[in-house]
Design goal:
eight-stranded parallel sheet, 12 helices, alpha/beta, single chain, about 260 residues
């Protein structure tokens, strides 16, 4: 069975004042809506504060080092995250790939490091507009996902969430249509099915890409959508709460 999860990605936003209010309101959302899981992935510097001020909400960060420790100035390790009870790490977000030149190999190594530590890796995959229009969508997505399947053990993959984020729909106000989302999610699940049938039945595939209150009900109702990775709307407890409210009950495994 697959219980939907709604994950907020705060990106590089927030202040102690704004986060204090946001945490208080998110706690209210968590108490009111327990039919879906919730998590927030916050800037590293706010991890200790958020860890102490949220209840019933999973906590994570937006990036992690593929190294354990050492002379890697500016990096943060998985063990540091665990010190503050972090549970989730976003790896391979399109902004990391585009702005910081992270490769499919980098993403797989980070996902492996996260899941080796018993944490959950939220592995982002997605295509640019040119890749979609040129007909290479499936090839791009398969390359992004297959290397993760190949490098992680089955137990590590059970700690993995796949997040489909069409690059052209992130922060643009555009969203893929319901049929486009379902088609891609079904395709991603088919890739996992070819690798391991039972894993494909259980793995969560969530959608990110301008998912907001106005389209949440439609997108979260799709058969292969197991939740959402929310960007801008996660900075508003009202909007985030409305999305959580529209999450669906547990979905049963595919046949």
């Amino acid at each position: 069975m697959r219980k939907q999860i709604i994950i907020g990605n705060w990106k590089m936003n927030g202040s102690l004042l704004s986060i204090k209010s946001l945490c208080e309101l998110l706690n209210q959302v968590a108490r009111a809506h327990q039919h879906a899981d919730m998590a927030v992935c916050v800037p590293h510097v706010y991890l200790p504060y958020v860890a102490e001020n949220i209840k019933g909400i999973g906590l994570g960060v937006q990036n992690i080092s593929q190294y354990d420790n050492g002379a890697y100035t500016g990096e943060v390790s998985v063990s540091m995250l665990k010190d503050f009870n972090g549970e989730y790490v976003i790896v391979g977000h399109s902004e990391r790939r585009a702005l910081f030149a992270e490769t499919n190999q980098d993403v797989a190594l980070k996902a492996k490091k996260v899941t080796e530590a018993g944490l959950s890796a939220i592995v982002c995959v997605g295509e640019t507009l040119s890749e979609r229009t040129s007909g290479t969508l499936r090839e791009v997505l398969k390359h992004q996902l297959q290397i993760v399947l190949d490098k992680l053990t089955l137990n590590q993959l059970r700690k993995t969430i796949i997040a489909y984020e069409p690059v052209w729909a992130i922060g643009t106000g555009l969203a893929a249509t319901a049929s486009q989302v379902q088609e891609v999610h079904a395709y991603l699940r088919s890739i996992v099915t070819n690798f391991h049938v039972e894993l494909a039945q259980d793995i969560k595939i969530i959608y990110g890409g301008s998912l907001k209150p106005s389209n949440a009900n439609e997108l979260l109702s799709l058969a292969d959508v197991d939740g959402g990775l929310i960007g801008g709307a996660s900075l508003s407890a009202k909007d985030f709460g409305e999305i959580v409210k529209q999450a669906k009950p547990t979905k049963y495994s595919i046949n």
